[in-house]
Design a protein that fits this description.
The chain has 429 residues and is mainly alpha-helical. The protein has 2 domains: 128 residues, no CATH class; 218 residues, Orthogonal Bundle (MetI-like fold). A 3-stranded antiparallel sheet has the order 2-1-3. The radius of gyration is 32 Å and the shape is extended. It starts with a helix and ends with a helix.
């Protein structure tokens, strides 16, 4: 008996993979997947391109900041002219004796004897500091004729690094060519940039003062924010009852994490300076302010890390007779530690790059020496970068980019530490 054609059609599979309509659907689906893949690849490539452009710009503008142009300076360190003696330099008051000596005038006169009236155009304003440091390091140089390499002026430094404007070339180009022909000028590593503090002369500035201020500020931030944040996360996840108050606290912490950083600066200005009368522009005030800003980030990261610990571990520990505190500190906290440390270092890295809250509490002062303690006047590396970027002299442009390179390297190092700690303490279950 023949089966009707309508019955055969009804018995076919609901999806006819060989049909033209289904093939068209598959082609459209594959096209959509390819387009989405290409879109994602394009987004990643564009992000990588912008990152490469940023790094290239910073490196190309800032690598010369780690170099210094120097000029040869034959100089006689006459004890009569300097009014110094070997006994003064060998004693405990060498700094006081050097401060009373007119080394700047002797340095300038030595340059005039060799280079004529162009000496002021050739030498940096702080060239005499190198003479003083050489005499302090080796008191036997007193009374001798020596050759020192001292920094040149900012204009000659820019010419040597091919960063001079046409106006600078007109003013100092001939002087640079004359020194170059005499072999009296060279480019060397600028170690002072890594060991000195701020200065009004771009050839004498350094990042150590601001970098040490950042380290002291981060130390205060870490000491305060890490234990308080971890204990708060443990309490909220392991002990706090689930009620209206804990929900309000959770919402408040999430909101605090999104508050603009300048608000924390205003809070630090109002509480730590105006109410508690702590020293202005000090690392302890900066650390307290940044701790308030970092604390919500650590609490949120800590809670998420604690939540990721399987409940079976808690149940197993309780089942063998462990107390609630032993469960938390012997099992839950060690397993959650990688996530907590990662969140903490990310929060610290964010705090390290903040400028607005530190500006509000006065850490933008001119600091010519590295801070000696938590209450000494100090600035931070991001603030120093901001101040240098606002300078008129073109010599500060490369110093700003060089300081940014140092800041980026420090941030990358902190992120590397976070990855290392996460892999070191991570456990599988």
């Amino acid at each position: 008996m023949a089966v009707p054609e309508q019955t055969v059609t009804q018995r076919r599979a609901p999806t006819d993979w060989r049909g033209e309509k289904m093939r068209g659907r598959l082609r459209r689906r594959y096209r959509s997947e390819r387009a989405f893949r290409l879109l994602g690849l394009g987004a990643v490539s564009l992000s990588a391109l912008f990152l490469a452009f940023l790094l290239w710009t910073m490196v190309s503008n800032g690598f010369t900041g780690f170099l210094q142009t120097e000029v040869r300076l034959p100089i006689r360190l006459d004890p009569v002219t300097l009014q110094l003696s070997s006994s003064q330099l060998a004693g405990g008051n060498a700094d006081q004796a050097l401060a009373s000596a007119d080394i700047e005038a002797v340095t300038l006169q030595a340059a005039r004897n060799i280079y004529g009236e162009n000496a002021r155009q050739i030498l940096s304003e702080g060239a005499w500091i190198y003479v003083r440091d050489a005499l302090k390091a080796d008191p036997t140089l007193l009374g001798q004729q020596i050759d020192l390499w001292v920094p040149v002026s900012s204009e000659l430094d820019l010419i040597a690094k091919d960063r001079a404007t046409p106006e600078i070339l007109v003013r100092a180009g001939e002087t640079y060519r004359s020194l170059d022909q005499q072999g009296a000028i060279r480019t060397a590593l600028n170690t002072r940039f890594l060991t000195a503090a701020d200065s009004t002369d771009p050839t004498l500035v350094g990042i150590w003062g601001a970098f040490k201020g950042s380290l002291l500020t981060m130390l205060v931030t870490l000491v305060l924010a890490f234990p308080v944040g971890v204990l708060s996360a443990l309490y909220l996840e392991e002990y706090a009852p689930k009620n209206r108050w804990t929900d309000l606290i959770e919402v408040s912490i999430n909101n605090l994490a999104a508050v603009p950083s300048i608000i924390f600066g205003l809070l630090g200005l109002a509480v730590f300076l105006n109410v508690m009368h702590l020293p202005r522009s000090a690392p302890i005030v900066g650390g307290l302010t940044l701790a308030l800003m970092t604390l919500p980030v650590i609490v949120i990261a800590g809670r998420n890390a604690i939540k990721s610990v399987p409940p079976s571990i808690r149940d197993a520990a309780l089942g063998i007779g462990a107390s609630r505190v032993q469960v938390v500190f012997h099992h839950v906290l060690p397993l959650a530690l990688p996530g907590i440390l990662t969140g903490t270092i990310i929060g610290m890295a964010r705090a390290l790059g903040e400028t607005a809250p530190l500006l509000m509490i006065g850490m933008r002062a001119f600091i010519s020496a590295a801070p000696e303690g938590l209450t000494a006047p100090a600035t931070a590396l991001p603030v120093q970068i901001f101040l240098w970027s606002d300078e008129v002299s073109r010599g500060f442009v490369e110093k700003t980019s060089a300081a940014i390179i140092v800041l980026l390297a420090f941030l990358l190092a902190m992120n590397g530490v976070a990855i290392y700690l996460r892999n070191k303490f991570e456990r599988r279950w």
